[in-house]
Amino acid sequence: MKLKDLLKEVSYKKIYGNDDVDIADISINSKNVTKGSLFIAIKGFKHDGHDFIKEAIYGGASGIVVQKRVDVSSPVAQVVVNNTREVLPAVCRNFYKNPTELLKLIGITGTNGKTTTCYLVDSILRSAGIKTSLITTVKSLLDGNEVLFSRTTPESLDLNDFFYKSSERGVEAACMEVSSHSVDLHRIDYLDFEYFIFTNLSQDHLDYHGDMRNYFAAKKKLFLKEYRSLYGGKKAVINIDDVYGKEIFNETDLDKISYSIKSGNADIWPTGIKNTISGINMTINTSRGLKLNISSPLCGYFNVYNIMAAVSVCMDMEIDKKYIKEGISSMNGVKGRFEKIYYNGRFSVIVDYAHTPDGLENVLKTARQILQDRGKIICVFGCGGDRDKGKRSIMGRISGTYADYTIITSDNPRSEEPISIINMIERGIKNISNRGYIKETDRKKAIFKALEMAGKNDMVIIAGKGHESYQEFKNYKLPFCDWEVVDEWVKQKK
Predict the structure, then answer these.
(1) pLDDT digits 0-9 by tens, 333-354
(2) Where do the domains of the chain lie, and which CATH numbers do they carry?
(3) Which of 112, 341, 356, 437, CA to CA, is 20 to 30 A from 99?
């Protein structure tokens, strides 16, 4: 494709050199540049792509996109723009020929529930015989084949490539998590979404956004008319039990579907909920008079919300209710999302990704609801380093309130000292009366201690890391899986 064609509807200051040059590929990493590439220099958090322009030219770049003209000896074409990060998705859309235009693209945003809701929607669509692709924190699948990404929501270059390949494979619908970072950093610009789902909002990522209003503002953009040309969108599915969801529902220009456990004015609501360790049974009702008896192996009221969100989208897509029921009942769970990993007749072990105050509270409340007679909840958790410090004491208080015993340990300490993070968590728990706790910086030892103290009918909740297979320290990562630690303990006891 010619450089001038890549720049259609792209705002730029000036082009130096030949805009009729052929472009064979796009790259934002100088190490991946090949002959004929267009290198777009992005200013990142740790590195500035402008510092690697010479390496990109040496690698064979035919053109570069920059925020200021660069003095290089090569006659390579230079496109000067105000913000390369904002230009990247527009160029990618042109290069990959707007690959989401022919897909039914469903974007799911919120603090909790995104991954499970994605899996539920995908399961329903596949039950109906629809070819799908999926992008989540846990796993991404292109027509059933796993694709590895380094971020929850990949860069726009990776997304456009992914959806282009999806279209080539005959994929009809795709479901993806949309993080606040991806909105703020323009990763999803110019993707043509059909549906947006809003699950909920609670404290998270304040190390990046600063406060809850900024965090909310990033997600809210998806639902506002002024950004419609940027994100597309035809319909919104919104949890109106969430205070932020109510605000979106009142302000969005999109056709909207509301779901609720509490409100009598929602479009979708459940009745007859039975929530046990074995799963959820309920009837989903609609304002059009339809009723759907649902049986799911998932458990917890937070999964009632996730199921309602998925059903809302798929009913609007006119998926036969037979396939909706099949898709819900066949989705056995997501790795690290209230995952029941062990039961020995005496006690059970649950691994969950809960790393926010709301997430941890939901998990512990669910555990309390399904706990057997006279059983206790033992909670093992920590908080990530170099992230929102304000939530640490809050999560300590939550564990102290809803768990019978807490073992405060390390999560991903990153550049911080583990004990420093643990002490911040402790501030929230130490004033909760009649609740025991200990501190153990070694996560493996902490999990072992919880398993050793578990008695008849008890439940051990290991929270924070969920599906993750590593533990991140300053300048290095170590292999670490919560479920593998449990498995090791079990084998030692045999």
Answers:
(1) 999 999 989 888 899 999 999 9
(2) 3-84 (3.40.1390.10), 104-330 (3.40.1190.10), 339-493 (3.90.190.20)
(3) 112
